[in-house]
Amino acid sequence: MVIIVKIPEIREYVIEKLEYIFNPRSVAVIGASRTPGKIGHEVVKNLLEGGYKGKIYPINPKAEEILGLKCYPNIKEVPDEVDLAVVVVPAPIVKQVIKDCAEKKVKGIVVITSGFSEVGNREEEDEIVKICREHQIPLIGPNVVGVLANKSKLNASFAPDLPYAGKIALISQSGALIIGLIGWTWLHRVGLSTVVSIGNKADVDFSELIIYFAEKDPATNCAAIYMEGTDAGREFVEACRRAAKKLPIVVLKAGFSKRGELATMSHTGSMAGSARIYGAAFKQAYVIQAKNLEDLYDRALALSLQPPLKNDLVLVITNGGGAGVLATDAAEKYGIPLQDTPKDLAEALKKYMPPFGSTKNPVDLTGMANEAWYYGAVTEALKHPEVGGVVVIYCHTAITEPMKIAEKIAEAGKVAKEMNKPLIACMIGGEEVEKASNWLKEQGIPSYPIPDRAMSAMGALREYGRILERIGYEK
Ligand code: COA
Predict the structure, then answer these.
(1) Which domain holds residue 447?
(2) Are 357 and 319 in contact (CB under 8 A)?
(3) Which residue has the least CA distance to atom 16 on ligand 1?
């Protein structure tokens, strides 16, 4: 019996070769099926429909052609180099297929097939890993949905669509969760560069992916991770620390409850570990934690669209007193308690509110606020040297059109960009407001439907700012 071996160390060849997996010139689908609805059929269909421009080689000994593409009985007979092999044959055939891939000298492998260590079949999993490592071929999986990358329009998975495009790389230990979350990206305009399902992570683990995204992939500027557990903790910490200057990393760690730990064990065979131990490791790793799935996206969205918050003075500008109070509570919860508005700024802000408005922080422009007041107050605050960033809150009123407010916030976003300060919006209301909020995100301004979520996002930008103050900003 071969005994392997979670990742022995961070391997530079893996970091180099991951580009062949996310940006391949050619893809072979081994186990491409003639039958619509089978996973092996859907992967080929997704590659075609996703708009992938490289060559696609379906492999199936029983078929001549699938979806108009010529089929080959074995990968070794493909008359071309193959960068990426996606494996969708049943578990008992996988080992032979991996040997064929090694002989063919493919550059990277993704094994979608289930039925390995997650069900106790560790031996066979170890054997395929051994072959891949001997030939220095990075292997993602087994037991995964696949990989998706917007930069190459690669949907090498059985998830129905590529995600809404952006700069977040989503790395997930759960495959099905990924499929659901891709739908969310379109609904809420959370832009992703890449989606990787790592399943049993028999070979490639979080670590090398994190370094790849930090150092080799200009399409990514933030990593969002759904983690159940890792048994390569030391490497994880090392990778995150190496990546931290270039890549903010947000992690949602699951399985902290008693039964959650058991569920984790039977899902991906990982040890969940205690919240305290993981919390300490994350701190050491310069990782920013998320408290749930929504928060993972919220925080990653802000980190992918806005610069870090460089000091603790966040100004909250609102047209609703209640929303301001909620934001004040949330600011404390997320480690950026509100401070008084600097005196000269308070004076300047009086131009943008009626006499009964408030220049204290939160700044209340009152229900009379129009888009011009919003623009004036937000830009005035952003330009003030002591202010680190602004959270602008809008409650839908009969005297304002949400889209007009959003347009002015986007315009203020240009000033924020010039000042290199974060601007975050919170838009509270119905359908029209949601539309305006989504539009804002398309313009690069993170926008949330409640103050707590907006402040959590700003809190994440402050956490990243503090990390960079400790380790130094990128030159
Ligand atoms: N090389 C290439 N193709 C081969 C082959 C070989 N050596 N041997 C058989 N095939 C073909 C089959 O003929 C079939 O094509 P066909 O439908 O045109 O006949 C195709 O490969 C698939 O094989 P099949 O036996 O029909 O398997 P399947 O589609 O029922 O199941 C998996 C295969 C991989 C999908 C299944 O084993 C599995 O693991 N499912 C779970 C996947 C999953 O959930 N992953 C984790 C997500 S989080």
Answers:
(1) 307-470
(2) no
(3) 33
Q: How far is the CA of 93 from the centre of ligand 1 (A)?
A: 9
Together in a domain, 268 and 396: no
| Entry pTM | 0.95
Inter-residue contact 22 to 194 (CB < 8 Å): yes
Q: How far is the CA of 89 from the centre of ligand 1 (A)?
A: 4
User: Do the domain assignments include residue 71?
Assistant: yes
Cβ of residue 62 lying under 6 Å from some atom of ligand 1: yes
295 with 151, same domain?
yes
| Same domain flag for 75 and 218 | yes
Are 361 and 340 in contact by the 8 Å Cβ rule? The answer is yes
Asked if 299 and 344 sit in the same domain, the reply is no
Three-class SS state of 264: helix
The ligand 1 atom nearest the CA atom of 39: 35
Q: Is the peptide bond before 362 cis (omega within 30 degrees of 0)?
A: yes
* CA 42 / ligand 1 centre spacing (Å): 11
| CA–centroid distance, residue 48 to ligand 1 (Å) | 19
List pLDDT tens digits, range 233-257.
899 999 999 999 999 999 999 987 7
173 close to ligand 1 (CB < 6 Angstrom): no
pLDDT tens profile 56-95 = 999 999 999 999 999 999 999 999 999 999 999 999 999 9
**395 beta partners:** 428
C-alpha of residue 88 to centroid of ligand 1, in Å: 5
Q: Is the peptide bond before 142 cis (omega within 30 degrees of 0)?
A: yes
> What single-letter amino acid sits at 344?
D
Q: Is the CB of 139 under 6 A from ligand 1?
A: no
Atom number in ligand 1 closest to CA 174? 48
Residue after which a domain boundary falls, among 303, 337, 363: 303
Q: Is 7 within the bounds of a domain?
A: no
Q: Which two tokens stand for residue 5?
A: 């071996």
Closest CA to 18 of 126, 149, 124, 112: 149
- For ligand 1, atom 44, name the residue with the nearest CA: 114
Please check whether residues 245 and 317 belong to one and the same domain: no
C-alpha 172 – ligand 1 centre gap (Å)? 23
Tell me the pLDDT tens digit for each residue of 141-182: 999 999 999 999 999 999 999 999 999 999 999 888 888 899
My answer on whether 298 and 349 are in the same domain is no
Residue 210's CATH number: 3.40.50.261
Q: Total structural domains in the chain?
A: 2
121 ligand 1 Cβ < 6 A: no
Last residue of a domain, one of 303, 326, 342: 303
With respect to residue 5, please indicate whether it lies within any of the assigned structural domains: no
